[in-house]
TrEMBL record:
This is Histidine phosphatase family protein. GO terms for cellular component: cytoplasm. Signal peptide: none annotated. CDD domains: HP_PGM_like (cd07067). InterPro entries: His_Pase_superF_clade-1, His_PPase_superfam, PGM_Phosphatase. GO terms for molecular function: phosphatase activity.
Length: 208
């Protein structure tokens, strides 16, 4: 029995302060992000969606809205789809700029392989995998859509592909409103398919 679990990264966020907002409440989709959500809803209109679930964060719930409505489904919430924890949350962060210029923050950067500034990559992969399998079971024989965030989706993909979880953020293949689709035969993963129904975005641009 084939089941497909789509991991959808939410759309662009209204973030005029350009901070790393992480799990902070109140960060909604921008107008462009709302259009991206509608574009994805149109792209999956003909899919056999039986279950829609999202991270508890506002931007993920808003991205899920048009898709769930089009399929007459309620939006479930799974805490394990949430953005990664990060000690720089609420600060402006860029290479060589913002909070990274302040010596008091440097000890947080001691181990990029874990990473030392936030939730460990392996913990992210494990919780995301749990959310995926719950979605797969809920939509067995059909399709499920899980709305999450760039880093958790990319970390899970690397984990499933047997790659090192530490990576260069500038090389993530996970554009805004992109789909990373996991195709299962029973409970065994058969393939991973990536698509960008709303177009490509630069992974270096804040909007996660």
């Amino acid at each position: 029995m084939t089941t497909v679990v789509h991991l959808l990264r939410h759309g662009e966020v209204h973030n005029p302060e350009k901070i790393l907002y992480g799990r902070l409440p109140g960060y909604r989709l921008s107008e462009r992000g709302q259009r991206q959500a509608l574009t994805v809803a149109e792209a999956v209109a003909g899919h056999d969606l039986a279950y829609v679930v999202a991270s508890p964060l506002q931007r993920a719930q808003e991205t899920a809205g048009p898709i769930a409505a089009a399929h007459r489904l309620d939006i479930a919430t799974d805490e394990d789809l949430i953005e990664a924890g990060n000690q720089f949350e609420g600060l402006q962060v860029a290479v060589g700029d913002g909070a990274l210029r302040e010596p008091r923050h440097w000890p947080k950067l001691v181990n990029p392989f874990k990473p030392s500034w936030g939730e460990p990559y392996l913990e992210i992969a494990h919780r995301m995998l749990g959310a995926v399998h719950r979605a797969r079971e809920a939509a067995e024989g059909h399709e499920a859509l899980c709305v999450s965030h760039q880093l958790p989706i990319w970390t899970l993909r690397r984990f499933l592909e047997g790659k090192k979880l530490w990576h260069d953020p500038r090389r993530r293949q996970c554009s805004l409103a992109s789909l990373t689709s996991l195709v299962f035969d029973g409970d065994a993963l058969r393939e991973i398919v990536y698509s960008e129904p709303a177009g490509t975005t630069d992974p270096k641009v804040t909007g996660a």
